[in-house]
Structure formats: C-alpha cells, structure tokens
Amino acid sequence: MTEIVNIENERGETRKYETVASRLVRFRTTYPAYSVNSHIIHIDDDMVRMRVEIGWINEAGAFCLLAAAHAEEWRDTSDVNRTAALENCETSALGRALAFLGFGSENSIASAEEVEGAKRRDRALDEKEPGTLILLQNAAKKGTAELQRVWEQDLDIEGRKACSRYMPKLKRLAKERDGDE
Asked: Is residue 114 predicted with pLDDT exceeding 80?
C-alpha cells in the first residue's frame, strides 16, 4: 500500500509526497533481486554525507548500477539529527535513488521525510537569522577584517547559512568602513 503525505508548500498549495518506506516496499515487490548499497562519503561531529546505489549483480558478480543519489544531514539542525543524522541521511539518499527509478511522488523526487526535514531546517535558520545578522552588521561597521573574523570564528554553520545571502552587502559596507579609516 502506497503511503502518501500531504504537505503544504510556501504558496499554500498542497502537494502529495510518498514516504521512503512506501517507495522501498514497492521497489522490493517489483524487483526483489536488486540490491541497495549505502556508502558513507563523509562523517564527522558536524555532518554526514552519503551515497546510495541501486542495481543488480550480474553473472560475473559485478554490481550493475541503475540509480544513485546523495544526501547530506547536519547534526545541529534537529533533535533527531543530533543522534540519528546517519540514519536520516541514508533514508534521504535512498528515497532519491528510488525516485530516480520511478518509485517516487508524482510531482517530486523529494520524499515526504525530505520535505518535512527541509521545512524544519528552514524554520531553524529563520529563528537564527535575526541575532546572527545583528552580529554581522556590527562586525561590518568595524571593517573587513572584523567581519571576516566573526564569520569564520564566531558563527556556526547554521548562522552562516542563515545569513549568507546578506554577505555581499555586508562586505561592501565593511570595505566602505575600511576606506574611511
């Protein structure tokens, strides 16, 4: 049975997304002999990046690739990711690989879990942006060196993501301050 989750987008439209578990059940029913291989590309205290490959083993014993997909999860983006970033990352990559094979939502490669995760990350960045932006604005008023120091030393990855779109303007402001001295 296909499990569909209705999720409202930023325009107020409701879209249908299939869960990864539902995609996997449909895939395994259709292709029981195919293999799913997960590979950790990067893992550390901050983030996890994975690749999932789907294919079959031929007569010579070689893996024949049908689809591959990547995912990335940051540990500080949610309570779940603090303890299960690896598992979430693998699920996201698997959902995308299955979608590339046609086991996905009608209008999207993203799974229900992936869309909900992105919405949670966006909310976290929106909450972080105001305070971080004030910190960067104050640094820019002191010049380029201070802006760069704050960006590299005082901000975490979420703070940088939340305010990266403001950096060109802040850099111009900092350069103007450098010129005033």
From this structure: no
In the chain, the number of structural domains is 2
What is the C-alpha to C-alpha distance for residues 20 and 1, in angstroms, rounded to an integer?
A: 13
CA angle 93, 155, 74 (to 5 degrees): 15
Q: Are 99 and 133 in a shared domain?
A: no
Which among 159, 157, 156, 138 has a CA at the least distance from the CA of 147? Answer: 138
The DSSP bridge pattern shows strands 35-43 and 47-57 to be antiparallel
DSSP-based three-state secondary structure for 69:
strand
Task: Say how many Å lie between the first and final Cα of the chain, rounded.
Answer: 68
Q: Which domain holds residue 154?
A: 125-181
Encoded tokens for 94:
């698997």
Q: For residue 47, what are its two tokens?
A: 């983030």
- Report the distance separating Cα 84 and Cα 113, nearest Å: 14
Return the axis-axis angle of helices 167-180 and 112-140, rounded to nearest 10°: 10
pLDDT digits (tens, 9 = 90+) for 19-72: 888 889 999 999 999 999 999 999 998 889 999 999 999 999 999 999 999 999
Nearest-angstrom CA–CA distance, 97 and 109: 9
Is residue 45 included in any domain, yes or no?
Answer: yes
Q: What is the Cα–Cα distance from 26 to 55, expressed in whole angstroms? A: 15
